[in-house]
Fold this sequence. Notes:
Number of helices: 15
Mean pLDDT: 80
Number of strands: 0
Oligomer: single chain
Amino acid sequence: MTSPIDIEGSGxxxxxxxxxxxxxxxxxxxxxGRSPGQLMWLRFKRDRVGVVSACIVILYFLVAALAPLIxxxxxxxxxxxxxxxxxxxxxxxxxxxxTGSFGGMSGDFWxxxxxxxxxxxxxxxxxxxxxSLYMAVAVTLLCVVTGVIIGMVSGFFGGRVDxxxxxxxxxxxxxxxxxxxxxxxxxxxxxxxxxxxxxxTYLRAVAITLVMWFLGWMGLARLVRSSVLSLRExxxxxxxxxxxxxxxxxxxxxxxxxxxxxxLVQATYILPSTxxxxxxxxxxxxxFVEPTPDWGRMFAxxxxxxxxxxxxxxxxxxxxxxxVLSFNLLGDSVRDAFDPKTGR
Length: 344
């Protein structure tokens, strides 16, 4: 016969056996054995805003890269004055404005035609996008490389190196950027071309790139410097020093991988800002000029005729706003994907 004590003991053990055991969640199991890059990609894929923004940005770059092919299939180019072509005798009215509705939109001219000259707006937008994106990518790469190098050297070595590089950075930060662009662009072009000669487009592109690079790397340099200063005293960096690793190896293997996130996020903010600056230079007449297609130059033309033909400014305006907004949202999504503490 079983005693009450045995019954109570067996009941207790049964209850103990039925106690809940820790259960791993599906998400935790899915993250086991994955690299930080794979985890970042999983978090990014869950962010619908980031995915949509990335698709829009990729589409812009594809359209810019394929602009000549698209224009060839479309059958137009951004340089021909179609109002003077015999095939389109009534493209402009007596006031040099598009004769059709919505800026002359038709099956032949999808986005209408340019007032006064009769050029195709669709191909002008394609090639203007191509010009702005290529320039912005070049300036962003130069600014990122320069900012990372100066910030890494300043933060890692410290002391007098940090002091003098910091003063150089402060010196460049003291320049008023927009005013410097306006004043210095003509000086740069005049150094290579006589005032009586027309400045080649490639020289204007090089001058714009140099001026924007000259004044665009300081913010990233300060960001990298502050990140390196906080990392160089960490235990893994000290362990690398004790093991006899060279400064180059410590920077390349220990520090640089830990500051990729702020560098990448900052680059996603530099590129759209650069596009806006390039458009601003062309808008005020010190950037690209006729007949080079450019977003800023299209805004300058549209500002003169917006009362008679508001559609001419509509398409480049929408294209620019969508791209800048998408790239900024993409930067936010990349930052959240790299941050393991985010809930997105």
